[in-house]
Design goal:
Blueprint: H1 2-17, E1 21-23, E2 35-37, H2 39-58, E3 63-65, H3 75-80, H4 82-85, E4 87-92, E5 99-101, H5 102-128, H6 134-140, H7 142-163, H8 167-176, E6 193-196, E7 200-203, E8 211-214, H9 220-224, H10 227-233, E9 240-249, E10 264-274, H11 279-295, E11 304-308, E12 318-326, E13 329-340, H12 342-351, E14 357-359, E15 364-366, E16 369-376, H13 377-388, E17 389-393, E18 399-403, E19 414-418, H14 425-436, E20 442-444, H15 450-460, E21 464-468, H16 470-475, E22 477-482, E23 488-492, H17 496-504, H18 506-510
Parallel strand pairs: 3-9, 19-20, 19-21
Antiparallel strand pairs: 1-2, 4-5, 4-6, 7-8, 9-10, 10-16, 11-12, 12-13, 13-16, 14-15, 17-18, 21-22, 22-23
Helix pairs in contact: 2-13, 5-7, 5-8, 7-8
Length: 513
Amino acid sequence: MAKQEDKFKSVISHAKEYGYVFQSSEIYDGLSAVYDYAQNGVELKKNIREYWWKAMVQMNENIVGLDSAIFMHPTTWKASGHVDAFSDPLIDNKDSKKRYRADVLIEDYVGKLDTKIEKEVKKAAKRFGDSFDKTQFLETNPRVLGYKEKGNAILKRMGQSLEKEDLADVKALIEELGIACPLSGSKNWTDVKQFNLMFGTKLGASAESAMDLYLRPETAQGIFVNFLNVQKTGRMKIPFGIAQTGKAFRNEIVARQFIFRMREFEQMEMQFFIKPGTQQEWYKHWKDARLKWHLSLGMGEDNYRFHDHEKLAHYADAAADIEFRFPFGFKELEGIHSRTDFDLKAHEEHSGKKLQFFDHEENKSYVPYVLETSIGLDRMFLAVFSNSLQEEELENGTARTVLKLPSVLAPTKAAILPLVKKDGLPEVARKIVEDLKWDFAVSYDEKDAVGRRYRRQDANGTPFCITVDHDTLEDNSVTIRHRDTMEQKRVPISELKSIIEEEVSMKNWLLRM
């Protein structure tokens, strides 16, 4: 656990030191659970968003984009159920005076069981060597099966209690498991209470006439209320999807874990409208498709797993999370939900407008069912960043810190380095920058010895370093160095564009799906 905490602290420190994420309003001592994306962070975030958009919208003829407003008519949130049922179960520790999400405390307890399973796997792998069959071990080892059974039983009980709003049993479960306050170690808990997460605001010229509004807690409702507009203007036929990215806001009382859980965050969502009765087929399709998208980034298949929900939202008939191995354990990264026809029917009822699709093949109208994929952009950022940050021991006994970002997502694709700041080398390097910047995000770096510049670019996540030396003046060639392997190769300047393109092209990465 200490090793995980040290890793996470390194992630947070590195994100600030190398211009990825800053604490918001830091000069005023910051604002809790609110962060700013810095010069490199904004580029990485943009690249993740574009990678998602290309795969989701550009590569699918029947999925289109939308950018709905943050402010929506307040009845929207009554229809969606957020006014009445958008809350978290919170519990206070009487001794430390700290507040926690009760469900997260329980999930963290189960996460420790998962850690024990991983330790059993590592011990067995070491004992059996090349003959070790991990799958068979996980399916047959009594101790592993015991941990799994216990974890599943805990989550099932919690899910059923939350669904029935039996908060007393949630507290009883915490007490039975002996869960202590992470800060003080105290087990002296208050009762569990629900807390609504929406931020309220006002719209109007005066306080007397102002309308009560909410900052949207999710982006999905902007898609649902525009379903008919998009369907008719785009002449869309079922099945079709509407995708959007955008900010959402939740008054997270127990926000923590850096950018994993924030009060202001960004979602990348797609609502796929389908014929009733086909939802299980599409549910499986999108579970497979979304996992393939994640795996295309090469961050390790072992770092992902599905978690099928025991407790379903009131609108869903199936739901699963794609969980990722963050430095603090497996946590939700993306959700795939079969939302039935709840949303469109609810908006029909509250608006008095028909939100239906006329199926010419069947000669009838119906309210479509919806299959949702929803991923937190900030969580995806953290997954990519934390997985990429590595400390390596080199053959010469030294160490390097390297941010092995998937090159397709890296903020800067190449750094151009003149060996020295004289003899015409900076001028040649600047010319290369001017040529490449039309196609790639590149930078120029002439400060310090070239070895130190390599290390700096490694830590910054730059896939390529291109060094201009005195031989360049004679043969028009440069040395290109690969971040991950540190391999150096002499190539003509004229080939730089194609070499970089081959490595960073979204097309080449997405073809791995």
